[in-house]
Here is the input.
Amino acid sequence: MIEVAPGAAPLDAAVRVPGSKYEANRFLIAAALTDGTTRLSGLPEGEDIRAAISAVDALGGSTAGRGGCLEVRGTAVAASPGSSFDPGVPVRVSVGESGTLLRFLTAAAATVPGSITITGSGRIRERPVAGLVAALGALGADIETTGGFAPLTVRSGRLDGGIASVPATESSQFASGLLLAAPRAAGAVSVELEGDPVSAPYLDLTVSVMARCGVNVERPGPRRFQVAAGARYRPGDHRISGDWTSAGYFLAAAALAPGRVTVDGLDPESPQGERRFPEVLRGMGCEVSEAPSEEGVRVTVTGASRLRGVSVDMRSMPDAVPTLAAIAPFAQGPTIIRGISHLRHKESDRITALADGLGRLGAHVVPMDDGLAIEPAESAATLRAALLDAHGDHRIAMALALTGLRVPGVRVGSPQVVAKSFPDYWRALAELGVRVSGEEAGP
Here is the structure.
């Protein structure tokens, strides 16, 4: 259990955040499907990334670390004469709790020889995948699921070209998985979205990473993507930029304390939707500034003595929803968060988990079909310290912990869940100047 309370002095700190796991997952899959050796630096730590590295091996590639850089040998290189890789031996690999990796690996596995069984833990057996499997089947893949969910087994070795329609209202990861696998198809691949995509910026991120790896994705229409026949990934050297979602926790701390926090090493051109979160904080009354730095952009947030409630459609920045929800009870006026029905199918039902956590503090929260309505507290005195349930979800744990900056004595159960994406989160929060105590707080 972790306990969080305000520090002895006002927040005034600078922090660096881990590399973006969203970029890293995409680069690792692309590198695994490259006929050559790719070097990746700035990879974040965490269970999701370790699972993605294991996925490279499952696809027939290999990895090796050198001087803080991960070398990824693509499937063609790893399967060359003298390699231990044997496509005739069935492979079983776990994606842990990563829904992203479940979708990406399923699509990539359809392009390599052999049989790959994909399993996972936590709620992974509840994460939708049937729409992706149907689209891959239309391109010639042979996939057996467990009632439309994981565990699933991919038996293929060849992905035909053609047109694949994929539902986009459940997850943008279906389309991203298809696009990442498309350069290994026998012919051109056209991906058509059924409905308006949730988390659309993550599709833009997929297209951006593919371009950096040498594959151009054409977009003849708002819901159509094309990868030409003969497109191939090129090996290269790539650095993973800082993660905008992780940055949001520390910028939100400045809003709550209030204080001033600077995060450096972020990509100003990142397609990641959470890149817009500082503007949400500006709308709540915070002062936000950006300045170029040697490694991208440096973002500084200075909190306001009185925060304003906001009404925001968070469809394009879903992972910032818990962070905004944690700030909302301390604003003047209600906060309405919309467009997030798909968050019910993450590591937890995040809409329910946030309503539960904030409710334990004494906040008034109304869950909606696609969002949350959060009323401000009448006064700080009406909120109370409580033991908050992370519901096994790293983002719920990290976000709800921030409420301890206004309500001393907030405790978060199962704090180790942050290992999924940000193992050093509690230490980083303490180094910011927040009082963090408990078994996972570090020395």
Summary: The radius of gyration is 22 Å. The chain has two domains: 2-19+242-438, 21-228. The first helix runs from residue 21 to 32. The CA atoms of residues 289 and 300 lie 5 Å apart.
